[in-house]
Amino acid sequence: MGVDRRQFLKIAGLSALAGLGAKSAFELLAPGKVEAALPLMEGKRWAMVVDMRRMTEGIMKKCSEACDDVHNIPNWGNPKVEIKWIWEEEFKHAFPDQENEYAADEVEHKDFLLLCNHCSNPPCCRVCPTGATWQREDGIVMMDWHRCIGCRFCMAGCPYGSRSFNWFDPRKAPKKLNPDFPTNPEFPTRSKGVVEKCTFCDARLAKGQLPACVEAANKIKKDILIFGDLADHESNVRQALRKHFTIRRKPELGTSPNVYYII
Amino acid sequence: MYDGGKIIVGLVIGLCLLLSPFFYNAGKAAKEPHPALTAKAKAAKKCVADTAYMRSNHMHLLDDWRQTVVRDNERYMKTADGKVYYKSLQVTCLNCHSNKTKFCDQCHNYLDVKPYCWDCHLVPKENK
Amino acid sequence: MLDRVIKGGPKYWGWLIFLAFMMTIGFIVYLYQFKVGLGVTGMSRDVSWGLYISQFTYLVGIAAGGVMVALPCYLHDYKAFGRITVLGEFMAIAAVLMCLIFIMVDLGYLPRIVNVIFYPHPKSILFWDMIVLNVYLLLNILIGWNVLAAERKGIHYQKWVKVLIYISIPWAFSIHTVTAFLYAGLPGRHFWLTAIMAPRFLASAFCSGPALLLIICLIVRKVSKFDPGEKQMRTLSGIIAYAFILNIFFFLMEVFTAFYSQIPGHMHSLVYLFAGLDGYGKLVPWMWAFAVASVVALVLLIVPATRRKEDTLLVACIAVIIATWIDKGLGLVIGGFIPDPFDKVFEYWPTTPEILIALGVWATGFFVLTVLFKMAVSLKEEVGA
Description:
The complex is a heterotrimer of chains A (263), B (128) and C (385). With 263 residues, chain A is α+β, with helices and mostly antiparallel strands.
């Protein structure tokens, strides 16, 4: 054949380079990406202010329902395996560090609306070994259900109990409790074996819509849930925080939660 | 060779076992897959990329989408001819190609590929 | 060397077959768990880690405990231990293997385990745990195998093995420190949020590991011609004694901090474990069994007469294993999750599938342990050790 060893190695090397480069070349020639083709919600530090003075059971229930609907969250009817992204707890359970035998009537028997706090210093993101949960530039603590290995370290790390695990396949939840499942054909379900939680409706935000709970709540009472950008000095949340005294859950842990409660 | 008889018999049995799937399926060639387009897909004429590219690279495209959409929050793409698409398997792709069994499954079943996308991403109900 | 493994008596094979049976059951039940989901276990939204992770935590301690034989031998020239370092290393191999399998069966999406390698996140302690455990496994395989092979040939092991040995000693400390860090850095779990977590883990490791090793050595002496040595076992019992005293001392320190400060977050988990909370107290009898076993172990280990007599020493070691297993394998992990972040109690108890899978993993570890020890002991018998 007349190809000596040196020439063979040169040919082999060049072919290998070409082979490696081909895939990237393909991608370069593929259709390009575009940013900001449609109005996007721009923000640097998303936060929520919950006006507990005017909050009612009915509104909180509507928030949970809206969230469940939009995200195809199954109802297992069993607290052992339940999945909840936004829910209610009594004051003493929402704020166990505020031990008070003689709490004001206003809060003593009231249920508070709880969800992921999208902390500025989230311990859950620190402990995730794969980056399946991470803090976005706009402050949202996101979930990547393609990457989660289901180790549940984030669940151990979260001081607020905001995270739920898919102990079973969500599509196998009892039909009696989930007659219209899946309620939103435009959002995926998750698979068994991954952790999930509130993502401040990142998909809706990208379309310029408010989170589902905020939309549902404000339909009933205006500004009962205020969602906005903390980094913007004049935003709705900053104004609300300047005007009203607020508390956050377990601030002493240094997580810097971004869900504030007007009491 | 030593124990030549046993070795050759063993080799023949081994070879038969190894090649048995081919014997079993002899004469029964699987039908070439013909993914069918829905009326909506036909009317749209164009996909996010041309057919040849999609046929061999849709999985890479979707992998790129799930990376850029979920992790980088880049949800829109513009094709060469200026059309903007929302990058979503469920919302965009399956909007036109709503017939999974007659479209996606045709090639996937032929090649015995079982993408786990469907574990999470919902498929529109088809009328059989 | 491995050929020694297939030459054994009926009791040896009977034991291996029993273990293989348990492994098979565990594997089949695991397939069921893999198909249906981790919901078949007793874990819940509140207690999201259970038996699997607690066994992993306990076994990392056993694996690290092997260093208590290597350290005096290689760093302090206590040549007597040279007889049994290989046994310590082989026990470490079996223990680390069990750790890795327990993590795998606990994962929600096992096929994605490679994501930990593809997308490394050094801020996550799990990332470091994966590294230290796998390296420790490799170290022990290389060291144990080569030292044993050299012994068989009647020569000294090569110089590069010494380098690995010197690395493996601090590395053993690191594996259990890193595992303690999994727990000790979580801001929301007050039962675990203590600086003393890593020291407590190490103390527990350095009594439970050697205790298990001692029990296995006594068995080896009974079923083979190899005698690990009176002197060796006496020194080992001394190490177990001191480490166990330290372990209990550290535990009592936790009790003091919690109850003298009277801070609810610190007290609640201990109250749940030892007295019950809000009417829930599944673990109370177990924790008091831990207390009783601890007292028994302390007495038998401290009193020289009982420590030196083999039968009472055996009881002491069993008591140490029981005590440390309850403390780490049940109390620690479950206690950390109860009460939950809302100060409510949602109890955990392992289900039957969960227990069968766990037993299957233990059986796997003991299978590997038996095989490796058979090889080591047979070779030591042959060279007339």
